[in-house]
Amino acid sequence: MVEDRDEQVATEARQGFGGWRRFDLWVLLGFLALAVLVMIRLWIDPNGRVLDGNDDDHGIFLFMLAHGERVVFDGAPPFFESNLNAPVGVNMMANTAILALSLPFAPVTHFLGGGVTVALLITLGLAGTAAAWYWLLARHLVRSRRAAVIGAAWCGFAPAMIAHANGHVNFVNQYLVPFIVWQVLRLREPGRALRSGIPLGLLIVLQIFINEETLLFIALTLGVFVIAYTVLRPREVREVARRFLGGLAVAAGTALVLAGYPLWYQFFAAGNYHGQPFKPDEFVTDLLSVAAYPRAAVAGIEPVAERLSVSATEDNTFWGPFGLVMIIVAARMLWRSAAARAAVIAGLVLLIASFGPRLRVAGFHTPIPLPFALVSHVPVIDLVSVTRFAMVPATIAGILLALAADRIGEFSPARRRRFWIGMALALVPLFPKPLPVAQGDPLPEFLTAGLWRQYVPEGRTLVTVPLAEVTTGRTGQRWATLENLDFAVPRGYFMGPADPPADDTGSWKAPTRFTSDLLTEVQLTGRAAVLTGADRKRIDEDLGYWRVAVVVLVPQAPNVAALRATLVDALGQPRLVGGVEIWVVDGHPTE
């Protein structure tokens, strides 16, 4: 009876959104409630708190949102930002600019603050991703709504998704993925070259402006899937190959016309880079992590997860022991299906790729070589954090679990009981906990009251000490971005060339200068610098290069006394204005 009712609802859903019943609305509200629960600690004070799992990346997406606000409200160019890393600027296409999100949500950023937009986008990203997979599963792949809920909940709230919710706005907004996958699969149908090719091209363009890395994962996964399916069903593939390739050509042409210039800007305009600032074997998936629990789950053990993962944002596997068993069980149940087998093969290939060039076990790098070593330096592949390839098998696992849950009704009552017990043991321990947060340094009145405007004329910059940098100077960048980059700041946390033109390897910060190195050393050691006349001259040169009008000391900075003593030695005594000490580098406040 229940299965008959499920099939009836699935049939109604396939007829369009009007066929969706009240149950489907409750499912979507449940996804939203779960997403709010995950983000609840940030929602309490979104502009005052930061995600403790990765406050650096929380900060970089505040920057992306501030840039979007400037594009909409100040007419700034969309692919370049001049008010970070002044006077050089930042190639936004070479960064994860999330323009498809930052531009529509610019009014939220402008009126409520970038912190609210971060919380909103991560919440909607988690819930929206689950909702999109629910649509695809319930409407096209399974008969049982229960199976659709299981698969969608896994795809939207899997350990990998919860981990990336620690600041990675781009990775949690994956609601276009199911639609892209479905449009690709529909290309095999007669008469779909244009009807599916053009929408697919438009979806690809939108995904480019959310997260290109996810788009690369989709392309690699579908490529492996098609190759595997071709081997398993060669005759069937030959029959549809021409129209499938024709539809892909239409999609590629559509995407190229619309995104050709932005992609050229990304790879060839000023600020482009090649490769990552780390070796491919540094950020890889640990073999034991596939059966461990993530730190963000109710069954998670923090020290174990730390040992098996590169960071709180990269728990890309962590399916738990029962979860791993149920994924294998689901694959075995579906093995007669060529499509399921091809999906399993694609997931295994991407999982093995995520292990990197050498196998890592329990936190130790072994000498065992892996296939990824052969492709680790291929252009575009060398821009990927290797462990993130494991996000693909995580999503495929959700689809397999949904398909298996849909099919279990065909088995005996005893087999069904064992299956559902296994699913409970797999899913309950992975239930996510609210993500941890930390209190950010409050913005001083000097910024919030606009007092800085008296000291920073057009074309000049405001420097915070510590300088805006990844890890050591996150407060300075956070202050600037929460003010929507109304003033320009040197340096910052972004991706750009390490030392152009000599070295265009990707770097998380601007090329070092004497003053940046000096102040970083003071901050880290707690010892004030003893400056010579030559040192002061080099500091003056750097301040001139950065076009600095005023220097602001962050009161809560680590080793602030040593930083202050160094600034006094270099620039003289400060003024106390708006709750902070400042040094006017050149000129005076306007009257």
User: What is the count of distinct domains?
Assistant: 2
Which strand order does the major sheet show? 7-10-12-11
- The proportion of residues forming helix, as a percent range, comes to 40-55%
User: Which geometry do the CA atoms define?
Assistant: elongated
Low-confidence stretches: 1-10, 12-19
Structural class: alpha+beta
Gyration radius, rounded: 26 Å
Q: How many β-strands, per DSSP?
A: 12
Distance between the terminal alpha carbons, to the nearest Å? 81 Å
User: How is the main sheet built?
Assistant: 4 strands, mixed
* Beta-strand proportion: 5-15%
Work out the helix count.
23
Key terms:
two-stranded antiparallel sheet; alpha+beta; disordered N terminus; four-stranded mixed sheet; 23 helices; 2 domains
Detailed description of the structure:
This protein is an alpha+beta fold and 591 residues long. It folds into two domains: 2-430, no CATH class; 445-584, no CATH class. Helices cover 53% and strands 8% of the residues. The chain has helices at 2-14, 22-43, 55-74, 99-102, 106-112, 114-141, 145-157, 159-164, 169-172, 177-186, 197-208, 212-232, 234-268, 302-308, 321-333, 338-354, 391-407, 413-427, 445-448, 474-482, 514-525, 533-545, 560-571, and strands at 49-51, 80-81, 90-91, 358-361, 364-369, 437-439, 461-465, 496-499, 503-507, 548-553, 575-577, 580-584. The strands form five sheets. Strands 7-10-12-11 form a four-stranded mixed β-sheet. Strands 1-6 form a two-stranded antiparallel ribbon. Helix 6 (114-141) packs parallel to helix 10. The longest helix is centred in the middle third of the chain and has 35 residues, at 234-268. The termini are far apart. Mean pLDDT is 93; it is low at 1-10 and 12-19. GO terms for molecular function: transferase activity. The chain crosses the membrane at residues 23-44, 111-136, 193-210, 216-232, 244-264, 318-335, 342-360, 380-405, 417-435.
